[in-house]
Amino acid sequence: PVPVSDFKHYLDVAQTMLDQGYFGVGRPSAWRLPAYPTFLALGALLSRDTFFLSAFTAALSVIQVGLTYWLSLLAFRRRSAAIVSGLIAAVSPAFVTFAPVLASEHLLAVCVLGALVAAMKTRRRIWTLPTLAGVLLGAGVLTRGEAGAYLPAVLLVAAGAGGEGPAGPRRPRAAPAPAPLGGAGPAPVGVSGCVPKETLGACRAGVW
């Protein structure tokens, strides 16, 4: 048995972007969200071999392990807990089995974990990291629409991040930066749910 995914269509979209200069297969279309096909197209600039692109995608799983370790270290402040979390992410049979499959879930995990790490590293009066959290979450939504469900979690983490900042101990505070940036991502998903399928591509292209 082979893992089933939409890998063939993602690959076709990526190759069309390089060969024809537009997003879609056969004609311009935004039926697929753009982030993962764009990631594949970047890999295809180096090689279009399927094995290479599988390894290119599997590299996302390596990043995911590192981000899992980092997030656990920030959350529990114990290196042992972070090591256990990273090992579970590294050796989980499901993660290992699907790591080389050309599927958007790998990029989604990296974007969401990265957004949470950036939110937890937030400091008072420094907007770089919450802005990065918003950008990463927005990229996650343009990978898979369900990433929008993580917006409240990222906002809560950014608002309550603890630790020592440049001005001393931090207090829970509002962190509005991730909201407009991360929240802008779900717009294509909302459009796709309320228009006929044949006009979906045009509407999504307009939103992007």
DSSP helix count? 11
- What's the shape? globular
Rg measurement, Å: 19 Å
- How many strand units? 2
Query: In what order do the strands lie side by side in the largest sheet?
Result: 1-2
Distance between the termini: 38 Å
Q: What percent of the residues sit in helical stretches (DSSP H or I)?
A: 55-70%
Structural class: mainly alpha
Main beta sheet: 2 strands, antiparallel
Strand coverage percent:
under 5%
Low-confidence stretches: 162-208
How are helices and strands ordered from N to C? HHHHHHHHEEHHH
Mean pLDDT: 77
What does this protein structure show overall?
- The chain has 208 residues and is mainly alpha-helical.
- It is built from eleven helices and two strands.
- The chain has helices at residues 7-19, 35-44, 50-76, 79-91, 93-98, 105-120, 128-141, 151-160, 178-184, 187-192, 200-207; strands at 164-165, 168-169.
- A hairpin with a 2-residue loop joins β1 (164-165) and β2 (168-169).
- It is globular, with a radius of gyration of 19 Å.
- The model is unreliable at 162-208 (pLDDT under 50).
Summarize the structure.
With 208 residues, the chain is an all-alpha fold. Helix content is 62%, strand content 2%.
